Amino acid sequence: MNDLAPLLTPEGRALLDEVRGTAPADELAVATRLRRDHPAPLVSAALAQARLRQRAVAKFGTADAHRMFFTPHGVEQSTRASVAAYRAARLTELGVTSVADLCCGIGGDAIALARAGIRVLAVDRDPATAATARANADALGLAGLIEVREADVTEVDTSGHDAVFVDPARRGGRGRIFDPEAYSPPLSWAVSAARTARVAALKIAPGVPHEAVPADAEAEWISDHGDVKEAVLWFGTEPGTVRATLLPGPRALRGAGLPDPPVRPLGRYLYEPDGAVIRAHLVADVAAELDGGLLDATIAYVTADTLRPTPYATAYEITDQLPFNVKKLKALLRERGVGVLTVKKRGSAVEPEELRRKVKPQGPNAATVFLTRVAGAPTMLIGAPAAV
Predict the structure, then answer these.
(1) I want to staple 100 with a disulfide (CB 3.0 to 4.6 A). Which of 41, 147, 158, 256 is the partner?
(2) DSSP 43-106
(3) Is 321 helix (H, G, I), strand (E, B) or coil?
């Protein structure tokens, strides 16, 4: 908070504009020049904030990132703007007009909610984080819809709001926390808080065990451009539903409770399901859509004889199936003049970069190699993205 306050002054804002886009290699020279006319702590704070803003562009876009304020932890943990906007749209469709955003962080979700016209009470117990969220609401012209409160979320009365959104801290002093009961606050408390509202959404790690999902919750896994971003437990929607949501879109695959797909021989095409589909345990639903099966009972690759467009998996046309053998792969790639090699793996201990170094691809052509198992045997599949 002490670093942020000076940046909110006219002098601080002018400095932020001046250091925008400063390359790391130029920071020392820029700092030396600016310290002739400005206090050294303020110059250091401005340069640090500029670095954070550059990192935040990937999540918030250039226009917002360079107006917002960040903490190192806030950049790391904040929700990507596209995901937050999707969630806000879904809450709007559910008739929500006010949300208690508990563990609001630097305000990424609160911003998306407010832009959807939802009134937000944003709560965080960390003074610096709450101050950053307040500054962001002001910077983006949303202070009229976002009330930021510095408080312990377990002591906040949420009864005056249509919905509750909880984003517990999932990182500690030693890094990522995998036990939901070690979240801050624990998942059990968040679930209890969710059940007090008409609608609630709890953001959790995508690797959460399915058995940890309460029976009265809907479980949703969300990916953005193929990268799994988070899982959400919804209350007051469709209890027991499991879905994978893919952004942009959104495109949502609802689980039908299908049994595991059959294991079958390799067909002409290999389908790599989206990560959200895999995390949601909905590979069977994709296999059914494609009239396909699995290459191995434990591997989430679907194979089929026909090419069918689906947003839930990427299709590859397979030309070769070989037992795992680096020398044979190297010879085949040399014969075909493959210089651009994409290596994908599932069920293999071999690292893609290690394999790429060993085969030394050279030539004008491109190929994709899958390191996987087929009916339990280590196998290499060679092919290329299929034109749908």
Answers:
(1) 158
(2) HHHHHHHHHHHHHHHHHHHHHHHTTS---HHHHHHSPPHHHHHHHHHHHHHTT--EEEEES-TT
(3) strand
Distance CA 204, CA 218 (A): 13
Return the closest-CA partner of residue 257 out of 281, 235, 228, 233: 281
Q: How far apart are the first and last CA of the chain?
A: 52
Contact status, residue 181 vs residue 150, Cβ threshold 8 Å:
no
| Rg for the chain, CA atoms, rounded | 24
61: left (phi over 0), alpha (psi -120 to 50) or beta: left
Supply the pTM of this predicted model. 0.91
Phi–psi pair at 336, nearest 5 degrees = -100, 5
Residue 1 confidence (pLDDT) above 50: no
User: Taking residues 245-257, what's their average pLDDT?
Assistant: 96
pLDDT tens readout for residues 64-105? 999 999 999 899 889 999 999 999 999 999 999 999 999 999
Query: 265 is written with which tokens?
Result: 């021989």
